[in-house]
Amino acid sequence: MTEFSVVDDGTVWLKDFERRLVAAYRAAGLGMDAAAEFVSKGRATVGDWTVAGIMDAGVRVGFVAVSVAERNGQLAGRIGDLRVTTEYAGQGHEEAAREWARGWCAERGARRVSVRFTEPALREVSAG
């Protein structure tokens, strides 16, 4: 069963997230300096995200990062990152994390949730 635990120190997640984000920008054709600059500018918004560890039988198998902010006069949630390690991928943790994140956002008043992932294979947009 997948469980979630909000982390007090997101340093491990942040380093991996930034590494993956740079790789995604580079794959899109940006040079290293431009990719690093985009990541640096985005770092300020990441501070508003809540990061939770995705757990399976007490083992952290990934992270999910969420936020809620006002957009056009309404609260909207955002899943900014969802990452499950390769050996645990495809075992239902990803869907459980999306559901947890949607619930987390709804508890804070968000009526809509957008999803944005760094890896091209995982990119999607959904409203819920």
Blueprint of the fold:
Elements: E1 2-6, H1 11-27, H2 32-46, E2 50-56, E3 59-71, E4 74-84, H3 93-107, E5 112-115
Parallel strand pairs: 4-5
Antiparallel strand pairs: 1-2, 2-3, 3-4
Helix pairs in contact: 1-2
Description of the molecule:
Strands 1-2-3-4-5 form a 5-stranded mixed sheet, covered by helices on one side. It is 37% helix and 31% strand. The protein has 3 helices and 5 strands. By secondary structure, the protein is an alpha+beta fold. α1 runs antiparallel to α2 (32-46).
Q: Report how far the terminal alpha carbons are from each other.
A: 24 Å
For the largest beta sheet, what order do the strands appear in spatially?
Answer: 1-2-3-4-5
Cα Rg: 15 Å
Q: What class would the helix/strand composition place it in?
A: alpha+beta
Percent helix, as a range, is: 25-40%
Shape: globular
Uncertain parts: 120-128
Report the biggest beta sheet as strand number plus sense, adding barrel if it closes: 5 strands, mixed
User: How many DSSP-defined strands?
Assistant: 5
What share of residues are in beta strands?
25-35%
Total DSSP helices: 3
Mean pLDDT: 88
Order of helices and strands: EHHEEEHE
